[in-house]
Write a structure and sequence with these properties.
Layout: H1 3-15, H2 22-38, H3 40-51, H4 55-81, E1 84-86, E2 96-103, E3 106-110, H5 118-130, E4 133-137, H6 143-156, E5 162-164, H7 169-176, E6 182-186, H8 189-201, E7 206-209, E8 215-218, H9 224-236, E9 248-252, H10 256-270, H11 274-279, H12 287-298, E10 302-304, E11 308-309, E12 314-315, E13 318-321, E14 337-343, H13 346-355, E15 361-365, H14 369-378, E16 383-386, E17 407-408, H15 414-419, E18 421-428, H16 444-454
Parallel strand pairs: 3-4, 3-6, 4-5, 6-7, 8-9, 8-15, 9-14, 13-14, 15-16
Antiparallel strand pairs: 1-2, 2-18, 7-17, 10-13, 11-12
Helix pairs in contact: 2-4, 2-5, 3-4, 3-6, 4-5, 9-10
Residues 110-114, 119, 137, 139-141, 168-169, 172-173, 186-188, 191, 194, 209-211, 243, 332, 334, 360, 402, 407 line the site of nicotinamide-adenine-dinucleotide (NAD).
Protein backbone atom coordinates (compact mmCIF):
# COMPACT_ATOMS: atom_id res chain seq x y z
CA UNK A 1 0.00 0.00 0.00
CA UNK A 2 1.54 3.25 -1.08
CA UNK A 3 0.05 5.73 1.36
CA UNK A 4 1.27 8.97 -0.29
CA UNK A 5 -0.15 7.77 -3.64
CA UNK A 6 -3.48 6.85 -2.07
CA UNK A 7 -3.80 10.25 -0.38
CA UNK A 8 -2.92 12.16 -3.53
CA UNK A 9 -5.35 10.06 -5.60
CA UNK A 10 -8.09 10.98 -3.12
CA UNK A 11 -7.18 14.65 -3.33
CA UNK A 12 -7.28 14.47 -7.11
CA UNK A 13 -10.62 12.73 -6.96
CA UNK A 14 -11.97 15.36 -4.61
CA UNK A 15 -11.06 18.03 -7.12
CA UNK A 16 -13.19 16.35 -9.80
CA UNK A 17 -16.12 17.76 -7.80
CA UNK A 18 -18.03 14.46 -7.77
CA UNK A 19 -18.33 14.39 -3.98
CA UNK A 20 -19.79 17.89 -3.95
CA UNK A 21 -22.95 16.68 -5.63
CA UNK A 22 -25.77 15.94 -3.21
CA UNK A 23 -27.18 12.90 -5.11
CA UNK A 24 -23.70 11.36 -5.02
CA UNK A 25 -23.43 11.80 -1.26
CA UNK A 26 -26.90 10.36 -0.65
CA UNK A 27 -26.03 7.39 -2.86
CA UNK A 28 -22.82 6.72 -0.92
CA UNK A 29 -24.73 6.88 2.38
CA UNK A 30 -27.19 4.35 0.99
CA UNK A 31 -24.32 2.11 -0.16
CA UNK A 32 -22.86 2.26 3.34
CA UNK A 33 -26.27 1.46 4.82
CA UNK A 34 -26.60 -1.59 2.56
CA UNK A 35 -23.08 -2.68 3.42
CA UNK A 36 -23.86 -2.66 7.15
CA UNK A 37 -27.34 -4.06 6.90
CA UNK A 38 -26.34 -6.90 4.52
CA UNK A 39 -23.38 -7.84 6.68
CA UNK A 40 -24.46 -7.34 10.27
CA UNK A 41 -23.97 -11.03 11.07
CA UNK A 42 -20.47 -11.00 9.62
CA UNK A 43 -19.62 -7.85 11.59
CA UNK A 44 -21.11 -9.18 14.86
CA UNK A 45 -19.14 -12.37 14.37
CA UNK A 46 -15.89 -10.48 13.72
CA UNK A 47 -16.28 -8.39 16.89
CA UNK A 48 -17.15 -11.54 18.87
CA UNK A 49 -13.98 -13.20 17.63
CA UNK A 50 -11.96 -10.12 18.55
CA UNK A 51 -12.95 -9.97 22.21
CA UNK A 52 -16.02 -12.03 22.88
CA UNK A 53 -18.40 -9.11 22.68
CA UNK A 54 -21.93 -10.54 22.75
CA UNK A 55 -23.99 -10.27 19.59
CA UNK A 56 -26.70 -8.41 21.55
CA UNK A 57 -24.23 -5.66 22.43
CA UNK A 58 -22.67 -5.44 18.95
CA UNK A 59 -26.07 -5.25 17.31
CA UNK A 60 -27.56 -2.69 19.70
CA UNK A 61 -24.47 -0.56 20.38
CA UNK A 62 -22.80 -0.66 16.99
CA UNK A 63 -24.95 -1.89 14.11
CA UNK A 64 -28.22 -0.23 15.18
CA UNK A 65 -26.39 2.97 16.14
CA UNK A 66 -24.77 3.17 12.70
CA UNK A 67 -28.01 2.39 10.82
CA UNK A 68 -29.94 4.96 12.86
CA UNK A 69 -27.26 7.57 12.17
CA UNK A 70 -27.29 6.88 8.41
CA UNK A 71 -31.08 7.22 8.40
CA UNK A 72 -30.81 10.57 10.19
CA UNK A 73 -28.36 11.79 7.54
CA UNK A 74 -30.38 10.43 4.62
CA UNK A 75 -33.45 12.21 5.97
CA UNK A 76 -31.83 15.57 6.75
CA UNK A 77 -28.86 15.99 4.45
CA UNK A 78 -30.70 18.08 1.87
CA UNK A 79 -31.61 20.61 4.56
CA UNK A 80 -28.23 20.61 6.26
CA UNK A 81 -26.39 21.12 2.99
CA UNK A 82 -28.45 24.13 1.91
CA UNK A 83 -26.64 27.45 2.07
CA UNK A 84 -27.89 29.27 5.16
CA UNK A 85 -29.09 32.84 4.63
CA UNK A 86 -28.21 35.19 7.46
CA UNK A 87 -28.99 38.84 8.14
CA UNK A 88 -26.79 41.61 6.85
CA UNK A 89 -25.38 44.32 9.09
CA UNK A 90 -25.32 48.11 9.25
CA UNK A 91 -21.70 48.09 8.06
CA UNK A 92 -22.42 45.91 5.04
CA UNK A 93 -25.80 47.30 3.95
CA UNK A 94 -27.01 46.57 1.32
CA UNK A 95 -26.02 42.92 0.90
CA UNK A 96 -27.21 39.31 0.82
CA UNK A 97 -25.30 37.02 3.19
CA UNK A 98 -25.00 33.27 3.09
CA UNK A 99 -23.03 30.52 4.80
CA UNK A 100 -22.01 27.60 2.58
CA UNK A 101 -21.03 24.28 4.21
CA UNK A 102 -18.06 23.01 2.24
CA UNK A 103 -16.23 19.68 2.58
CA UNK A 104 -12.59 19.82 3.64
CA UNK A 105 -11.25 17.42 0.99
CA UNK A 106 -9.33 14.28 1.96
CA UNK A 107 -9.94 13.28 5.57
CA UNK A 108 -8.37 10.68 7.84
CA UNK A 109 -10.41 8.80 10.45
CA UNK A 110 -8.41 6.79 12.98
CA UNK A 111 -10.49 4.41 15.08
CA UNK A 112 -9.97 2.36 18.17
CA UNK A 113 -10.88 -1.22 19.05
CA UNK A 114 -13.52 -1.07 21.78
CA UNK A 115 -16.46 -0.26 19.48
CA UNK A 116 -14.62 -1.20 16.31
CA UNK A 117 -17.58 -0.83 13.95
CA UNK A 118 -19.28 2.21 15.42
CA UNK A 119 -16.18 4.31 16.08
CA UNK A 120 -15.05 3.99 12.49
CA UNK A 121 -18.35 4.17 10.63
CA UNK A 122 -20.12 6.84 12.68
CA UNK A 123 -17.57 9.55 11.86
CA UNK A 124 -17.43 8.21 8.29
CA UNK A 125 -21.15 8.99 7.89
CA UNK A 126 -20.40 12.64 8.70
CA UNK A 127 -17.45 12.69 6.32
CA UNK A 128 -19.59 11.28 3.47
CA UNK A 129 -22.51 13.61 4.20
CA UNK A 130 -20.29 16.64 4.12
CA UNK A 131 -18.77 15.53 0.77
CA UNK A 132 -15.23 14.44 1.65
CA UNK A 133 -12.99 11.63 0.45
CA UNK A 134 -11.94 9.42 3.36
CA UNK A 135 -9.23 7.08 4.53
CA UNK A 136 -10.17 4.88 7.48
CA UNK A 137 -7.58 3.42 9.80
CA UNK A 138 -9.17 0.70 11.97
CA UNK A 139 -7.49 -0.45 15.17
CA UNK A 140 -5.04 -3.33 14.98
CA UNK A 141 -6.26 -4.53 18.39
CA UNK A 142 -9.53 -5.73 16.82
CA UNK A 143 -7.96 -7.46 13.78
CA UNK A 144 -11.00 -9.52 12.73
CA UNK A 145 -13.20 -6.43 12.55
CA UNK A 146 -10.45 -4.42 10.91
CA UNK A 147 -10.15 -7.07 8.18
CA UNK A 148 -13.92 -7.41 7.75
CA UNK A 149 -14.52 -3.68 7.42
CA UNK A 150 -11.56 -3.18 5.09
CA UNK A 151 -12.78 -5.99 2.82
CA UNK A 152 -16.35 -4.70 2.72
CA UNK A 153 -15.27 -1.13 2.04
CA UNK A 154 -12.96 -2.15 -0.78
CA UNK A 155 -15.72 -4.29 -2.34
CA UNK A 156 -18.25 -1.48 -2.46
CA UNK A 157 -16.35 1.79 -2.76
CA UNK A 158 -13.86 3.29 -5.15
CA UNK A 159 -10.61 3.63 -3.20
CA UNK A 160 -9.99 7.08 -4.66
CA UNK A 161 -13.09 8.06 -2.74
CA UNK A 162 -13.10 5.81 0.34
CA UNK A 163 -10.45 3.36 1.48
CA UNK A 164 -9.64 1.48 4.66
CA UNK A 165 -5.97 1.05 5.51
CA UNK A 166 -5.17 -1.69 8.01
CA UNK A 167 -2.15 -1.53 10.28
CA UNK A 168 -0.70 -0.69 13.65
CA UNK A 169 0.71 2.47 15.21
CA UNK A 170 3.42 2.51 12.49
CA UNK A 171 0.79 2.69 9.75
CA UNK A 172 -0.97 5.39 11.69
CA UNK A 173 2.27 7.38 11.89
CA UNK A 174 2.80 6.94 8.14
CA UNK A 175 -0.69 8.26 7.48
CA UNK A 176 -0.14 11.18 9.82
CA UNK A 177 2.84 12.32 7.72
CA UNK A 178 0.42 13.17 4.92
CA UNK A 179 -1.21 16.57 4.58
CA UNK A 180 -4.83 15.56 5.15
CA UNK A 181 -7.47 18.28 5.13
CA UNK A 182 -9.07 16.99 8.34
CA UNK A 183 -8.19 14.36 10.94
CA UNK A 184 -10.73 12.67 13.18
CA UNK A 185 -9.17 10.56 15.92
CA UNK A 186 -10.73 8.30 18.54
CA UNK A 187 -8.49 6.77 21.19
CA UNK A 188 -6.35 7.59 24.19
CA UNK A 189 -5.35 11.05 25.36
CA UNK A 190 -1.70 10.00 24.97
CA UNK A 191 -2.06 9.20 21.26
CA UNK A 192 -4.45 12.14 20.80
CA UNK A 193 -1.54 14.45 21.64
CA UNK A 194 0.66 12.68 19.05
CA UNK A 195 -2.08 13.11 16.44
CA UNK A 196 -2.47 16.78 17.22
CA UNK A 197 1.27 17.36 16.99
CA UNK A 198 1.37 15.68 13.58
CA UNK A 199 -1.65 17.68 12.42
CA UNK A 200 0.00 20.92 13.53
CA UNK A 201 2.70 20.41 10.85
CA UNK A 202 0.08 21.23 8.20
CA UNK A 203 -2.31 23.14 10.44
CA UNK A 204 -4.80 20.38 9.76
CA UNK A 205 -7.92 20.77 11.90
CA UNK A 206 -8.70 17.85 14.21
CA UNK A 207 -11.44 16.27 16.22
CA UNK A 208 -10.08 14.28 19.14
CA UNK A 209 -12.46 11.85 20.83
CA UNK A 210 -10.54 10.74 23.91
CA UNK A 211 -11.26 9.27 27.33
CA UNK A 212 -10.97 10.06 31.01
CA UNK A 213 -12.34 9.13 34.42
CA UNK A 214 -16.08 9.64 34.14
CA UNK A 215 -17.77 9.80 37.55
CA UNK A 216 -21.21 8.57 38.57
CA UNK A 217 -22.54 10.58 41.51
CA UNK A 218 -25.16 8.93 43.68
CA UNK A 219 -26.76 11.58 45.84
CA UNK A 220 -28.62 10.72 49.02
CA UNK A 221 -32.06 11.34 47.48
CA UNK A 222 -31.42 9.04 44.50
CA UNK A 223 -33.49 5.96 43.66
CA UNK A 224 -30.66 3.67 44.74
CA UNK A 225 -31.77 0.43 43.10
CA UNK A 226 -32.20 2.22 39.76
CA UNK A 227 -28.83 3.95 40.24
CA UNK A 228 -27.11 0.63 40.97
CA UNK A 229 -28.75 -1.12 38.02
CA UNK A 230 -27.95 1.63 35.50
CA UNK A 231 -24.40 2.18 36.73
CA UNK A 232 -23.61 -1.53 36.64
CA UNK A 233 -25.19 -1.79 33.22
CA UNK A 234 -22.82 0.99 32.08
CA UNK A 235 -19.93 -0.98 33.53
CA UNK A 236 -21.09 -4.42 32.30
CA UNK A 237 -21.52 -3.42 28.65
CA UNK A 238 -18.27 -4.26 26.83
CA UNK A 239 -16.89 -5.30 30.26
CA UNK A 240 -16.37 -1.65 31.12
CA UNK A 241 -14.21 -1.05 28.03
CA UNK A 242 -16.31 1.93 27.01
CA UNK A 243 -15.00 5.49 26.77
CA UNK A 244 -18.09 6.80 28.56
CA UNK A 245 -18.41 3.94 31.08
CA UNK A 246 -18.86 5.19 34.64
CA UNK A 247 -15.23 4.97 35.71
CA UNK A 248 -15.81 5.46 39.43
CA UNK A 249 -18.72 6.23 41.71
CA UNK A 250 -19.06 8.98 44.29
CA UNK A 251 -21.64 7.81 46.80
CA UNK A 252 -23.23 9.96 49.49
CA UNK A 253 -22.41 8.52 52.92
CA UNK A 254 -26.09 8.12 53.82
CA UNK A 255 -26.70 5.69 50.94
CA UNK A 256 -23.43 3.75 50.90
CA UNK A 257 -24.88 0.61 52.48
CA UNK A 258 -27.90 0.50 50.26
CA UNK A 259 -25.74 1.13 47.14
CA UNK A 260 -23.60 -1.89 48.09
CA UNK A 261 -26.70 -4.02 48.75
CA UNK A 262 -28.35 -3.14 45.45
CA UNK A 263 -25.07 -3.47 43.55
CA UNK A 264 -24.78 -7.03 44.81
CA UNK A 265 -28.36 -7.69 43.75
CA UNK A 266 -28.05 -6.31 40.20
CA UNK A 267 -24.64 -7.85 39.53
CA UNK A 268 -26.12 -11.16 40.70
CA UNK A 269 -28.98 -10.70 38.23
CA UNK A 270 -26.70 -9.71 35.33
CA UNK A 271 -24.38 -12.67 35.90
CA UNK A 272 -27.15 -15.09 36.95
CA UNK A 273 -26.65 -17.66 34.25
CA UNK A 274 -22.94 -18.31 34.46
CA UNK A 275 -22.86 -20.29 31.22
CA UNK A 276 -24.73 -17.55 29.47
CA UNK A 277 -22.62 -15.04 31.41
CA UNK A 278 -19.43 -16.28 29.77
CA UNK A 279 -20.89 -15.83 26.30
CA UNK A 280 -22.81 -12.68 27.11
CA UNK A 281 -19.91 -10.85 28.70
CA UNK A 282 -16.95 -9.40 26.82
CA UNK A 283 -13.37 -10.44 27.34
CA UNK A 284 -10.66 -7.93 28.21
CA UNK A 285 -9.14 -7.04 24.84
CA UNK A 286 -5.66 -8.52 25.38
CA UNK A 287 -3.24 -9.90 27.95
CA UNK A 288 -1.58 -6.53 28.55
CA UNK A 289 -4.87 -4.93 29.52
CA UNK A 290 -5.91 -8.01 31.51
CA UNK A 291 -2.65 -7.84 33.49
CA UNK A 292 -3.00 -4.06 33.95
CA UNK A 293 -6.44 -4.58 35.49
CA UNK A 294 -5.57 -7.60 37.65
CA UNK A 295 -2.51 -5.73 38.87
CA UNK A 296 -4.79 -2.92 40.05
CA UNK A 297 -7.07 -5.51 41.66
CA UNK A 298 -4.15 -7.02 43.57
CA UNK A 299 -3.80 -3.68 45.35
CA UNK A 300 -7.51 -3.63 46.25
CA UNK A 301 -9.92 -5.34 48.59
CA UNK A 302 -13.11 -5.83 46.60
CA UNK A 303 -16.43 -5.34 48.34
CA UNK A 304 -18.07 -7.30 45.50
CA UNK A 305 -16.52 -9.55 42.83
CA UNK A 306 -12.78 -9.66 42.25
CA UNK A 307 -12.63 -12.93 40.27
CA UNK A 308 -10.44 -12.86 37.16
CA UNK A 309 -9.88 -15.75 34.77
CA UNK A 310 -6.70 -15.51 32.68
CA UNK A 311 -7.94 -18.24 30.30
CA UNK A 312 -11.12 -16.48 29.24
CA UNK A 313 -9.63 -13.04 30.04
CA UNK A 314 -12.85 -12.18 31.83
CA UNK A 315 -13.04 -10.16 35.03
CA UNK A 316 -16.19 -10.22 37.14
CA UNK A 317 -17.91 -6.90 37.81
CA UNK A 318 -15.96 -5.74 40.84
CA UNK A 319 -16.61 -2.99 43.35
CA UNK A 320 -13.88 -1.52 45.56
CA UNK A 321 -14.21 1.06 48.34
CA UNK A 322 -11.49 3.58 47.55
CA UNK A 323 -10.06 6.87 48.75
CA UNK A 324 -9.06 9.65 46.33
CA UNK A 325 -5.44 8.43 46.52
CA UNK A 326 -6.23 4.76 45.71
CA UNK A 327 -4.32 3.37 42.66
CA UNK A 328 -7.69 2.79 40.96
CA UNK A 329 -8.31 6.55 41.10
CA UNK A 330 -5.18 7.46 39.10
CA UNK A 331 -5.98 6.62 35.46
CA UNK A 332 -9.00 5.65 33.40
CA UNK A 333 -9.81 2.04 34.37
CA UNK A 334 -11.33 0.79 31.11
CA UNK A 335 -12.54 -2.47 32.64
CA UNK A 336 -15.35 -3.83 34.84
CA UNK A 337 -13.92 -2.53 38.13
CA UNK A 338 -15.81 0.25 39.90
CA UNK A 339 -14.02 1.98 42.75
CA UNK A 340 -16.26 4.19 44.81
CA UNK A 341 -15.50 7.02 47.13
CA UNK A 342 -17.83 8.29 49.83
CA UNK A 343 -18.71 11.98 50.07
CA UNK A 344 -20.56 14.09 52.63
CA UNK A 345 -20.79 17.46 50.95
CA UNK A 346 -21.67 17.92 47.26
CA UNK A 347 -19.79 21.22 46.96
CA UNK A 348 -16.61 19.57 48.25
CA UNK A 349 -17.14 16.76 45.76
CA UNK A 350 -17.62 19.22 42.90
CA UNK A 351 -14.39 20.96 43.90
CA UNK A 352 -12.57 17.60 43.81
CA UNK A 353 -14.01 16.85 40.38
CA UNK A 354 -12.99 20.27 39.08
CA UNK A 355 -9.42 19.55 40.23
CA UNK A 356 -9.30 16.38 38.10
CA UNK A 357 -8.84 16.37 34.30
CA UNK A 358 -12.25 17.04 32.74
CA UNK A 359 -13.91 13.72 31.92
CA UNK A 360 -15.77 12.71 28.78
CA UNK A 361 -18.96 11.98 30.76
CA UNK A 362 -20.60 12.48 34.12
CA UNK A 363 -23.64 10.70 35.51
CA UNK A 364 -25.73 12.12 38.31
CA UNK A 365 -28.37 10.22 40.26
CA UNK A 366 -30.73 12.55 42.07
CA UNK A 367 -34.33 13.78 41.95
CA UNK A 368 -33.45 17.29 43.00
CA UNK A 369 -33.42 19.93 40.24
CA UNK A 370 -31.19 22.32 42.17
CA UNK A 371 -28.59 19.62 42.52
CA UNK A 372 -28.82 18.78 38.82
CA UNK A 373 -28.28 22.43 37.93
CA UNK A 374 -25.41 22.88 40.38
CA UNK A 375 -23.46 19.90 39.07
CA UNK A 376 -24.08 20.82 35.42
CA UNK A 377 -22.96 24.39 36.12
CA UNK A 378 -19.98 23.69 38.39
CA UNK A 379 -18.25 20.64 36.91
CA UNK A 380 -16.69 20.60 33.42
CA UNK A 381 -17.31 17.39 31.43
CA UNK A 382 -18.20 16.50 27.82
CA UNK A 383 -21.78 15.33 28.36
CA UNK A 384 -23.74 12.83 30.38
CA UNK A 385 -27.03 11.71 31.86
CA UNK A 386 -29.20 12.38 34.85
CA UNK A 387 -30.36 9.09 36.37
CA UNK A 388 -28.82 6.98 33.63
CA UNK A 389 -25.49 6.07 32.06
CA UNK A 390 -24.24 5.87 28.43
CA UNK A 391 -27.58 6.61 26.76
CA UNK A 392 -26.84 10.25 25.84
CA UNK A 393 -24.88 8.73 22.95
CA UNK A 394 -28.05 7.21 21.54
CA UNK A 395 -29.57 10.58 20.61
CA UNK A 396 -27.94 12.18 17.59
CA UNK A 397 -29.59 15.51 18.42
CA UNK A 398 -27.03 15.73 21.23
CA UNK A 399 -23.43 16.49 20.23
CA UNK A 400 -20.94 13.94 21.56
CA UNK A 401 -17.41 14.93 22.52
CA UNK A 402 -15.10 15.79 25.36
CA UNK A 403 -13.54 18.87 26.87
CA UNK A 404 -9.97 19.49 28.02
CA UNK A 405 -8.04 16.21 28.16
CA UNK A 406 -11.12 14.20 27.14
CA UNK A 407 -11.16 15.73 23.68
CA UNK A 408 -11.70 18.50 21.19
CA UNK A 409 -14.80 18.88 19.03
CA UNK A 410 -17.90 16.74 18.80
CA UNK A 411 -20.06 14.76 16.37
CA UNK A 412 -23.27 12.74 15.81
CA UNK A 413 -26.18 13.80 13.59
CA UNK A 414 -25.97 17.36 12.28
CA UNK A 415 -22.89 17.92 14.47
CA UNK A 416 -21.06 15.31 12.37
CA UNK A 417 -22.02 17.09 9.17
CA UNK A 418 -20.73 20.34 10.68
CA UNK A 419 -17.55 18.71 11.96
CA UNK A 420 -16.60 17.56 8.48
CA UNK A 421 -17.55 20.84 6.79
CA UNK A 422 -16.01 24.24 7.01
CA UNK A 423 -18.18 27.32 6.79
CA UNK A 424 -17.62 29.50 3.77
CA UNK A 425 -19.12 32.96 4.35
CA UNK A 426 -20.28 34.85 1.29
CA UNK A 427 -21.42 38.45 1.17
CA UNK A 428 -23.17 39.16 -2.13
CA UNK A 429 -23.14 42.90 -2.86
CA UNK A 430 -25.49 44.48 -5.39
CA UNK A 431 -23.75 46.65 -7.94
CA UNK A 432 -26.35 49.33 -7.32
CA UNK A 433 -26.53 51.42 -5.20
CA UNK A 434 -22.79 51.94 -4.74
CA UNK A 435 -22.72 53.95 -1.51
CA UNK A 436 -19.61 56.04 -1.86
CA UNK A 437 -19.06 57.25 1.69
CA UNK A 438 -16.83 54.25 2.54
CA UNK A 439 -14.32 55.14 -0.21
CA UNK A 440 -11.41 57.60 0.01
CA UNK A 441 -10.91 60.46 0.08
CA UNK A 442 -12.07 60.39 3.71
CA UNK A 443 -13.73 63.47 5.09
CA UNK A 444 -15.22 64.84 8.27
CA UNK A 445 -18.71 64.59 6.75
CA UNK A 446 -18.27 60.90 5.94
CA UNK A 447 -16.88 60.17 9.40
CA UNK A 448 -19.75 62.01 11.05
CA UNK A 449 -22.20 59.95 9.05
CA UNK A 450 -20.67 56.74 10.46
CA UNK A 451 -20.66 58.23 13.96
CA UNK A 452 -24.34 59.09 13.62
CA UNK A 453 -25.22 55.55 12.47
CA UNK A 454 -23.35 53.91 15.34
CA UNK A 455 -23.89 56.34 18.21
P1 LIG B 1 -4.98 4.11 21.26
O1 LIG B 1 -4.93 5.56 21.47
O2 LIG B 1 -3.82 3.29 21.75
O3 LIG B 1 -5.18 3.71 19.73
C1 LIG B 1 -6.13 4.31 18.91
C2 LIG B 1 -5.62 4.34 17.48
O4 LIG B 1 -4.40 5.06 17.44
C3 LIG B 1 -5.35 2.97 16.87
O5 LIG B 1 -5.84 2.95 15.54
C4 LIG B 1 -3.82 2.88 16.86
O6 LIG B 1 -3.30 2.14 15.78
C5 LIG B 1 -3.40 4.32 16.77
N1 LIG B 1 -2.12 4.56 17.46
C6 LIG B 1 -1.64 3.93 18.56
N2 LIG B 1 -0.44 4.43 18.91
C7 LIG B 1 -0.16 5.41 18.00
C8 LIG B 1 0.96 6.28 17.81
N3 LIG B 1 2.00 6.25 18.64
N4 LIG B 1 0.91 7.15 16.79
C9 LIG B 1 -0.16 7.19 15.95
N5 LIG B 1 -1.22 6.37 16.08
C10 LIG B 1 -1.23 5.47 17.08
O7 LIG B 1 -6.37 3.64 21.86
P2 LIG B 1 -6.63 2.72 23.09
O8 LIG B 1 -5.85 3.22 24.26
O9 LIG B 1 -6.52 1.31 22.74
O10 LIG B 1 -8.18 3.10 23.28
C11 LIG B 1 -8.72 3.33 24.47
C12 LIG B 1 -8.85 4.81 24.74
O11 LIG B 1 -9.71 5.39 23.78
C13 LIG B 1 -9.51 5.09 26.08
O12 LIG B 1 -8.87 6.17 26.69
C14 LIG B 1 -10.93 5.45 25.72
O13 LIG B 1 -11.59 6.24 26.68
C15 LIG B 1 -10.72 6.15 24.43
N6 LIG B 1 -11.95 6.11 23.63
C16 LIG B 1 -12.60 7.27 23.38
C17 LIG B 1 -13.80 7.25 22.67
C18 LIG B 1 -14.58 8.49 22.38
O14 LIG B 1 -15.49 8.43 21.56
N7 LIG B 1 -14.28 9.62 22.98
C19 LIG B 1 -14.29 6.04 22.21
C20 LIG B 1 -13.58 4.88 22.49
C21 LIG B 1 -12.41 4.92 23.19
Amino acid sequence: MNIPELVSSQKEHFHTGETLELPFRLQQLQTLRDLVSDNHDLLCDAVYRDFGKPEFEVYTNEIAVVLQEIDTHLKNLRDWAKPESVKGSKLTFPSRNKIYSQPYGAVLIIGTWNYPVQLLLLPLIGAISAGNCTILKPSELAPETSRAITGLISDRFNRNYLASVEGDAGTSRELLKEAFNYIFFTGSTRVGKIVMQAAAENLTPVTLELGGKSPAIIHKDAEIEIAARRIWWGKYVNAGQTCVAPDFAAVHRDVEDSFIRYSEKVIGEFMADRTNGIKAYSRIINENHFNRLTNMLSKSEPVIGGEADPNSRQIAPTMVRAGWDHPLMEDEIFGPILPYIVYDDLNDLNQRLRDMPSPLALYLFTKNNDIKNTVIRDVPFGGGCINDTLTHLGNSNLPFGGVGLSGIGNYHGKFSFDTFSYKKSILDKPVWPDLTFRYPPYSGIKLNLFKKIFS
